Amino acid sequence: MKLTWEWLNDACRSGLPAAKLAELLTRAGVKVEGIEERGGETVIELEITANRPDCLSVLGVAREASVVTGKPVNEPAAACASVLAAVSPDWTLDVQAPDLCPRYVGRVVKGMRAGAAPDFMRRRLEAIGLRSVNAIVDITNFVLFECGQPLHAFDLDRLAGRAIQVRRGKPGEKLRAIDGREYDVAGALVIADAEKPVAIAGVMGGKDTEVTAATTNVLIEAAVFDPLTVRRTSMKLALASDSSYRFQRGLDPARVDWASRRAASLMQEHCGGRVAAEHLDSAPAAAAPRQVAIAEGSIARVLGREIDPAQSRRILELLGFVVQQAPGGWSVTVPTWRADVSRDVDLVEEVARVYGYDRIPDRPRVNIALAPRNPFDDVAGEVRRALCGAGFGEILTLSFTGKHAAEAPFLPGEPVGVLGKTGRREEQMRQGLTPSLLEAARMHEAYGERDADLFEIAKVYARDTRGFQERMVLGLLGTRGFPAVKGALEHALERVGLGAATSFRPAERAHLVPGRSAEIVHENAVLGTLGEVAADLCAGHDLRARPVVAELDFDALVDRARLVRRFVDFPALPAIQRDIAVILDRSIPWSRVAACVREASTGGLLEGIRFFDLYEGKGVPAGKKSLAFTVTLRAPDRTLTTVEAEREVAGIVGALTAQLGGVLRG
Amino acid sequence: MSDGELDGLRAEFEAALAAAGSAADVEKVSSAWVGREGRLRRLTEGLGALPPDQKKVRGKAINDLKVAMTAALEGKAQALAAGAKPAPVDAIDVTLPGVRPRVGRRHPIYSTMEELRDVFGRLGFECVYGPEIETSYYNFEALNIPLDHPAAEPFDTWYLDDAEGAKRPYRALLRSHTSPAQMHVMESRKPPIRVVVPGKVFRTDPADASHLPVFHQIEGLYVDEGVTFADLKGVLSVANRALFGPRTETRFRPSYFPFTEPSAEVDVSCLLCSGTGCPACKGSGWIEILGCGMVHPRVLEYAKIDAGKYSGFAFGMGVDRIAMLKLGVTDIRHFVRSHPLFLGQW
Fold it and tell me: What is the model's pTM?
């Protein structure tokens, strides 16, 4: 909200320059966002929090300025000096929906000449961003910003039947508002004359009854409307105004009639009008003010600082609270403009903010307590270090699928859609990380980074019969082939204690190339997938490379991880290593070869077997391949002889030939 | 002849020696100064005219100078000889760039999150996580945020498309802040509670230089007997110094959050100008970094924690914003674009 320092100074002569006053207000919770000179006035922009509608006016901010500077508030005059002869009102008021309009005050001013508003008024309204219309309209706006009570002026002579009804819009009813647009007001709270709606209550007046240069007699409306009703109407019609902004946040019920009188007196002063002696008020009785009890010691208990009770009391009284001694503490009467204060902690905040947050000591009284580490952080930290060490860079991408809806789902179930501001389905939550990884790879390719190796740990979402599901997933993408990604993954799994019991077996997935993809299995549970990305999917992402992606259920990884390391003693006796190359059918997987070698070694000498080369091509018959590997042989109790080693190797080669049809490669 | 004159001669000698670029040059300097016909020799000849006591002192000074000059001449001759050595045949060009290992880099948001977790971990705050799919009960009601009220407006929330949702009392949504996790923790534990909750949050903000529809927060909660606003101030001041440097000042301004009372916004002295005013802090010297306050008694009541016995404080900050401040990133969208020139910087 904007107001001007000069305007504010009329309401409370702080004697302080704008910048200094702004600082004091900010320190007390009325945040000044900026100060600028405009049209001869110093415009102050304030950020008023949703709980403080009482500060949405010059007088409201002046009250705060008064508290922080000690200077009094000067209430403007609202007396109507020149009054028309006491005749009964020549208009009628009928509030048909008192639940949505607790109070309606109407006051008539007659015989005006609606010229231009006085200079000071125009200058101030224009400085805060309003357009000057004519003196009557400007006065309603001026009083709105002066005291926070929205007002509306109807051209009395254009109200059919000189009647005001406050009721719900009837089916089919429409209203052309002051902005020139037509609104469907069926069901909305409206102000109507004898025939038709003339204003959308609390939001905007109608074009037909607006004040024009020809207007001489006006009806000034000052009312209270139900905040929720105004809010819903305003949102439904996508129509907001300075009035609806204030009605939604709540008004000071004690200001309603004052604002009406204030506007009437200004019209009398500046437009030559005369105020009708009788006004109509639907509910003149004031509600009883709220009482809040605060126990002795509450302030110190919340703040951790004793504040002299006399000082606390004085702060509350400066803010308009009435403080009375009560058994065990105080009974505090809340001023009518502070509907936000309803319990003792609210009073504590009032005292604290004026006393000064900076005067409350910084006292970290933190008891010694061991904060346990979160297993997710431990496992994610280990995996991140492992993958970064293996050359994979971490990315972070949005959780929505964007244009690549429902591609390559990882989590089973239906996709989850989300509704935006409009209430329509605007986005879809990602069900897997593959599309995001492909987009990131495309970004790398576009900027000349051909060999992108990337990973992300993030949630994916789906909906199944149990409801909405979310799952943390690790996604990897590599552009240097299947073995490179598999190796990085194996390394990461090994770092979290899952290396030994994890295996890979051929599997098919819609988004991966058949015959070039696998499932990742740990102790009979499928944790994820790994494979080359299908060509059409790459093409859909404008990707020239054919990357390999892996996705793993990270929540399962965290559950299964074993981060504790134990020393394993290693043999002191020397080992003998032998390289073996064998030609086999293409279809025989390495896992069978390795198993065959292990079974063949019956003497307990085989310590390890390590693959080092796969070869197909010249020198190897078609349909065959050459697998080369190293076996490590060692006896636990003696130094192995060459003769023993050769015998073991012969046994292994014999088994490969007998069981797998393998031929030793020269 | 004064000692000042000897000093002058020494300086003259040193200049001559420095100018010598070859063994032959050094030889020339040697004969000109310490040789048979050299200038020191001529000085020595002048000694005979002095009284005996002066002759002794001056003789020693001249001799000292000669020793020093001889050593310098030898040193220079050796240095020139060494430089003239031919390079070994297996010499390498040490100025060629090294072969860099291929390493991946952490994403700066996660590094920042880890730093935040670490700072609060050192203060005894346990890190826990909460769901990203929430209900309007946890995201709003239990936090004392009135739905259908301007106070809920800052939380522009993504609701899940859920046709059956109408049958349920609360709507499913993507959490618009990490605060719902407070409620889960308070429901499942007894005080003392001291936790931080980092994670993704979602708002319907369109993406621009300072907004993304998905961003990150870290939430803190401390509930125990006798926790006060002074404790809140102390813990956050300490944390800010750990995060932003030991001279960081922290300022608490009254503000409003429905789930805390009293509430505060917290500024730190500007990281760039240390409080003197610069464009980064719009000249104010302060940068707003978090919101906090004492847990509203109504929130404790929702969690079935005795608000008469226990009190607590809570705080929340934007991880992306802190990363931007600390790293000097000027557009939040860089974090999610996966641009290699951005990711390669960390």
Answer: 0.85
